[in-house]
Write a structure and sequence with these properties.
mainly alpha, 6 helices, 4 strands
């Protein structure tokens, strides 16, 4: 019995390898009818060889991309680049939020809109009574905080 695939171009190799392995354990072959992988037919020894070579090349390419990405990120870190989106809260915004939150007539929604931040960001930096919280203190002191760690 053979499983027939019309066009091989839209499949991810990692998924395809798993599918073909699962099919072969059940005694089902795999044939590609059109596209770049048209010569693949796992019901023949030559087709199994071609599929194995393609799978090995795909794994090699994946590992190579991963290795280059990690090297690029390490190089950027060595040059002082941290990546990611810029922080929304500045020292000026924290001071303004502290002042506004200390007043009873302040509407949190309006304050968040004015500062261009979310409620979660506001409350992470400033308490409802206007007191400074840990993340707000880090911003005012000049340190950056991300995911609970000083960067």
């Amino acid at each position: 019995m053979a499983r027939i695939l019309w066009d091989f171009a839209y499949l991810c190799w990692a998924n395809t390898i798993n599918i073909v392995h699962d099919l072969s354990t059940r005694g089902i072959g795999f044939k590609v009818l059109t596209g770049h992988g048209a010569s693949i037919d796992t019901t023949t020894p030559a087709g199994k060889l071609v599929f194995g070579i393609f799978a090995a090349l795909a794994e090699f390419e994946h590992d190579l991309i991963s290795e280059r990405t990690k090297a690029g990120l390490a190089s950027a870190r060595a040059r002082g680049r941290k990546g990611g989106a810029p922080f929304k809260m500045t020292a000026a915004k924290v001071r303004l939020a502290m002042s506004a939150m200390g007043q009873k007539e302040t509407k949190v929604t309006d304050l968040c809109s004015e500062l261009a931040i979310t409620r979660q960001t506001l409350y992470r930096h400033v308490a409802p009574d206007g007191a400074l919280r840990k993340d707000g203190l880090k911003v005012i002191e000049g340190g950056k905080i991300r995911y609970g760690k000083k960067k």
